[in-house]
Amino acid sequence: MTDISNASPNGLTHLDNQGRANMVDVSEKPPTQREAQAQAWVRMRPETLKLIQSDGHPKGDVFAVARIAGIMAAKKTHELIPLCHTLLLSSIHVELKACAPDSVKILGTCRVEGQTGVELEALTAVSVAALTLYDMCKAVDRGMVIDDIRLLSKQGGRSGHFKFEDAQ
Q1: What pLDDT is attached to residue 115?
Q2: Across all residues in the chain, what is the average pLDDT?
Q3: Annotated binding site for substrate
Q4: I want to staple 122 with a disulfide (CB 3.0 to 4.6 A). Which of 6, 20, 28, 38 is the partner?
């Protein structure tokens, strides 16, 4: 029988006792309410942001498409990130906000009652929303920059709360 325990002298819980990568066994952890919020920024030329805001973009409502893409991506995080658990998310919220004159701030919030956190789901949501925004606007602005992707906060679980101190 294969030893699938997560004990590791260096504290890396994705390694088994033989040093092989494994999915963390969370079966002994009680389900708790968990929430994570992440952000991403997309910086662009001011005229690109004006085009998005004018509803005159030839591909339609850029923010709506990016929002849906972020939500769909959060639901499939386990398919994108190796060793990530499949979660039945109870809530996914993705918000895109124009920050004049040349930026879009993307916030993603994911919630679950489960045995493991939703940080990766929130980070995936904002990352894919940003990539979708880029994809929809690349014909008019290939110089857009996606940056400052980070976890802003997490609540619940064994490791407790986290809040990024310099959150914008």
Answers
A1: 84
A2: 88
A3: 83-85
A4: 38
